[in-house]
Structures are given as structure tokens and as C-alpha cells.
Amino acid sequence: MTIKRHPIFLNFYEVCHPLIQHKLTVLRDLNTNKKDFKALVGEISMLLAYETTKNLPMTLRAIETPLEKCECPVLAGKKPVVLAVLRAGLGMVDGFLTLMPSARVGHIGLYRDEKTFKPHLYYFKIPSHSKDRHFFICDPMLATGGSAVAAIEKLKEAGVKKITLVCLVAAPEGVKKVFKTYPDVPIYAASLDRELNKKAYILPGVGDAGDRLFGTK
Ligand code: PRP
Ligand code: URA
User: Fold this and answer.
1) How confident is the model over 65-83, as pLDDT tens digits?
2) Is 184 a catalytic residue?
3) Per the residue annotation, which of 25, 116, 181, 216 is the catalytic one?
4) How many C-beta atoms lie closer than 10 Å to residue 137's C-beta?
5) How many C-beta atoms surround the C-beta of residue 98 within 10 A?
6) Confidence check: pLDDT of 93 > 90
7) Model-level pTM?
């Protein structure tokens, strides 16, 4: 895949694969309906999952093929966790699970105050033994970065050491905030967009991801 590492935010990676870019353009289009929007979020997430899991640790397992015994590579350690940031992150979970069916799923409920843009936590549930698991935080939108920082903070409080943030669209403001607060957390996105508008929506963006996914507007 073609990956662009940001020259300043060194932990930010833009995944520029043609299929991802094509699907993202259709996703952005205001004429794309709810059904297609949901399908596209899932497809892009699956492609991002392929890229973001490339450094998962491996070990060897002794098996027997129909012809001989051999030692072959398998994923090592505890099952990773896909952490959905409610609501919109729910749309990314199945894409990840398509590639990692036995991954665990955690949920964090955060909503952004419409005036202050500050995140409010209303739910947090993660699998046991979280300290030993790699967490993939899934949220389609990284806008001011408030929600991402709050999610990372909760995971760090829980003792989680390996965290990757995965978004579809990121604003420079959000990338900067996450990078400044948690420079150890890599961020992957299908696009680094231009800026935020006065209501902290990403430009050009996709609009309100939660509303478009769930048809709530
Ligand atoms: C959206 C989005 C992110 C957050 C990003 O969720 O899914 O979680 O905003 O904004 P930030 O980077 O400025 O924090 P929202 O709070 O609208 O909740 P919803 O998914 O339930 O609609
Ligand atoms: N949340 C969204 O859903 N979209 C944005 O552009 C910003 C925050």
C-alpha cells in the first residue's frame, strides 16, 4: 500500500491506496445514501485494518500439513481489541472483524458538546486482560482531537500500552492535538483533510458521520 508519513506529525500515516481513495470520494459525496455510506465505511475500514495490523507480533506454531511437520507463523499473544468510539466508530468494527474475526470488541461512548466541542464520556467497557492487548481505536472522524485524546486517556488509565488510532478522515488540528498529547500513539487515516470549520466540522470531510451512518438527521 502507499503510505504517506507526515513530515511534522511523525506518527501520522495517510493510507493512499487507490481503492481507499476512490471509496472515500464516494463517501464524501452528499448524494451517497445511508446504505452505501455504511457499506463504504465498512469497506474502507477493512482496507485500513490490513495496513494498521501489519506490525502485530508473530510466533511459530508446530503443525502438520498433509505432507510433513513444520513450524509456521501465527499471531502471538492475547487477541487484539477493536475499540469502537460510539456512535460512528461502530461502522468500522465489522471491517476490522472481517480480517481479525477473533479480535475482541470494546466500546467507549463519547459525544461532543455542540458549543464547547468538548467530549463527554457516557460509557466504557473493554475486555479483560486489556493491559496485554493491542487496541485499535476506531473512529471515522478526527476533528478537534478531543474525543481521540479522551479515548486514549481511558485506555492508558486502564494500563493499555499498545494503542493505534484509526480514522477515515483527519483534520490537522486533531492530528496535532493527539500527537502533542500522546506522541507514542500512531494515527492512520485515509485522508488528512484541510481544516475545521467554525462548528469544528472537517473540511471537506464527509459531514456528520454518525448521522449519515444511522440516518439520524
Ligand atoms: C463525532 C465523531 C468523533 C468526534 C470527533 O462524534 O464520530 O467521535 O465527533 O470530533 P472531535 O475530534 O472534535 O472530538 P460525535 O461526538 O458527533 O458523536 P456521535 O458519533 O454519537 O454522533
Ligand atoms: N464529527 C463528525 O461526524 N464530522 C466532523 O466533520 C467532525 C466531527
Assistant:
1) 999 999 999 999 999 999 9
2) no
3) 116
4) 28
5) 14
6) yes
7) 0.97
116 is catalytic: yes
Question: Atom 20 (ligand 1): residue with closest C-alpha?
Answer: 87
Choice from 87, 112, 120, 139 to test ligand 1 binding pocket (greatest atom count within 8 A of CB) = 112
What does the pLDDT read at residue 25? 98
Q: Does the annotation count 193 as an active-site position?
A: no
Check pLDDT > 90 for residue 10. no
Q: Which of 52, 53, 104, 112 is catalytic?
A: 112
Query: What pLDDT shows up at residue 101?
Result: 97
Which residue, among 4, 183, 208, 6, has the nearest Cα to 112 in the 3D structure? 208
Find the angle CA(14)-CA(140)-CA(171) to the nearest 5 degrees: 55
Structural domains of the chain, with CATH: 3-54+78-214 (3.40.50.2020)
